[in-house]
Amino acid sequence: MCLRLGLACGLALPLPLPAATSQSFQVNATITPGCLIVGGGSNYGALSYGSYSALATSTVTAALTGGVTLQCTPGVALSMSVDGGLYNSAGRNLQLNSGSARVAYQLFRDAAFSQSLGVNQSVSVTYSDANTISLPIYGRVVLPGNQPGGTYSDTLQVQLSW
Question: With 70 as the cut, is the pLDDT of residue 84 above it?
Answer without folding.
Answer: yes
